[in-house]
Task: structure prediction
Amino acid sequence: MQVDELKDQLLQTDATFRQLVTEHHDLDERVRHLASQAFLSTPEQIEEVSLKKRKLRLKDQIEDALRRHLGDGALQSH
Result:
């Protein structure tokens, strides 16, 4: 099974995985919005850094879930 196929399957069958992916997407949208601003206030700068860190943690959790289902070598091409 390919990574994309597994991801689609888990999105349909695993509520925890779906929540991770949804939250990652939502954070990505907020980071993009902040990045598009000409000027960020200090609180917005802090928020942006915090969101990026959270987004990276979510990405790691998503990849860990995929590895558990595919095996460690499966994500090297991704």
About this structure: Residues 2 and 14 are 17 Å apart (CA to CA).
